[in-house]
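Standup notes
- DV: blocked on the single-chain target, sequence here:
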Amino acid sequence: MIARERPADPRLVQTLRGHVIATLVLAAPVVVARAGFVILQIVDTAMTGRAGTQELAFIGIAGAVQMVLMLLALGMLRGIPVLVAQARGAGDFERCGEIWRSGLLHAVVLGLLMVPVSLSGEPILRLVGQDPELARGGGEVMAMFALGLPFFFVWTASTMFLEGVRHPIPAMLITIAGNILNAGLNWVFIFGHLGAPEMGASGALLATSIIRVLMFAALMTYVFSRPQLGIYNIRGGFAGLLGIGRRLRRLGYPLALAAGVEAIAFATMTMFAGLLGTERLAVFQIAITSITFIFMAAVGVGAATAVRVGYAVGRQDTRETKWAGWTGLGMVIAIMIPASIATLAAPAGLIGIYSNDPAIAALAPGVLTVAGLLLVFDGGQGVLMGALRGTGDVWIPSLIQLMSFWMVMIPAGALFSFVFDWGAAGLMGAVMAGVFTAFVALSTRFSIVSGRAIRRL
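- DV (later): unblocked, structure below
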């Protein structure tokens, strides 16, 4: 007698479908908005590459330091959507606006603190052993980057608030418009059109800083002009926000640590690439920029997962907490597998976007092959960090990232690139080792945390 296959439980299928749709509705505009800022970097990198390999190296070495500054500050703000989502899930709508206003104060302070650091780009790059000419050009790029920092952080705090209350589309639309304008301003400032000086890599960052100011103005206009946001108490004052600020910082310190650990680790890898020569640095920068763009899918799904997990925690629903987290992980894996295949299938086409230098074209395929292989694990660990963030579990995941990137990736990068002489491909192999370690450890951590009762922060 032939055994019949049991049909899928319709309740299970319906639950899974509901979680996928809910995550996708929130994640899609977040992915576009987050990807938009990476597209700014990609367009800057691609258009700067047409100005010469040296200009491409300038923007690459400056980007390593810039990313550290940005991610450290953004880590401090990542508690905003978690607290907002948990408050909204508990029906405490007025608290959402208070959390946002406290986040704005933190964003302004962080922006003002990061500006003088960014203006010190050349001495920082010389201090870590970079070539004087590379340090000079990278320092000029960082000075232009500093102009838009405070506006960028306020923009980010506001987008995180909107994500927490499930209004992500305005940030997406403003980001799309900003990218279109950025390409035009790049053409003006990089190549010296319409009477502007020819500024190369510095011109690309000047254009981006101008765009960030305009995007900030557009988003703030939206927030204060939409009547439907009034239920969240957005027009209240700044009095009585000290308690919320303390909760934001309690979340922010470990999240900034996690972001900083990751950013400094990747910056160290870029510095390693700089020691290997201009061409290898340019190839590594192209690979990292490409990975970062694809990783924005994980950032978007991770942000949506954090909000949905936080909402479930606010309602004290352990079952929904598990579903929200594991659904996010499954979705990002489904996205990353075809992205990995595409990267492996067409490395030459990808390189052609950034540079027509034959030396770079010769070095790139090996680096991009490894980059394509690591995407699934990188995306997975990014979403798992979001899921754990939504529960309020932040210290252990931060220590996991510290272990993965500093005890695995950095030593492996030095070993593969300088001892085994695998060059930029060895550096990318070390990145793969680090993100795989983080993926396995964070999966285990979420399984533990989601299996116990979780209280609202």
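- Follow-up: The radius of gyration is 22 Å.
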